[in-house]
Amino acid sequence: MNLRLTLATATRILRQLRADHRTIAMMLVVPCVLLGLLAWIFDGTPVFDRIGAALLGVFPFVVMFIVTSVATLRERTSGTLERLLATPLGKGDFMLGYAMAFGFMAIVQALVATAFAVWVCDLDVAGPTWLLVVVALGDALLGTALGLFVSGFASTEFQAVQFMPALVLPQFLLCGLLVPRDRLPSVLSAVSDWLPLSYAVDAMGTIAAVPEPLGEVSRDLAVIVGAIVVALGLGSLTLRRRTP
């Protein structure tokens, strides 16, 4: 890989995003709107404080998955990717450049969503707010990496979106948000142990309940980072120059 080409790719993607106001709004506004709606629905009850931190990780994951998978597919179907890969730019440079660009947006998204949840929606957490931001950032990067990975298997934007119920919804159902993972049937509990979103929800739950959670959260963060690296590696292997 070439660092100069990787940075050039990241810069190009950020310039495109800056001109795409709807995509920026989806990444930054949608998680806040959903969190605000839930806080309003459960106003006066302890429910939002119980699930709000976990959703602070789930919503960025879902949004970044959709945006990244569709944006990457658009690069391929438009012929841009084929032209880029005809230059010295390698697949690894492309994947890492995309990850860096959307990673920057993920940082902004994590900061905005966490600030909105804590200071506007009055989300009460026992742990430090900065750790909430770190885990939310990891979840957003995980969604980005998985979006890059699945985009290689889609031929149209509609197919890219169809991967959400196939890859994202099972993780949502088994991550422990709806039913604690230790109360799931043994087979489903074993499956949830292999799903990275489970560790993101565990980390958020620990931060919400434990005043000094860094030691407990470190393992969950390590799993999330490992999943990001694996997804990016697999994405570079499955990336196609163009759509048949």
Automatic annotation (TrEMBL):
Residues 14-242 form the ABC transmembrane type-2 domain. It is found in: Cell membrane. Keywords: Antibiotic resistance, Cell membrane, Membrane, Transmembrane, Transmembrane helix, Transport. Its main location: membrane. GO terms for cellular component: ATP-binding cassette (ABC) transporter complex. Belongs to the ABC-2 integral membrane protein family. The chain crosses the membrane at residues 21-42, 54-73, 94-118, 130-153, 160-179, 221-239. GO terms for biological process: response to antibiotic. It is a multi-pass membrane protein. This is Transport permease protein. PROSITE patterns: ABC_TM2. One of its GO terms (molecular function) is ABC-type transporter activity.
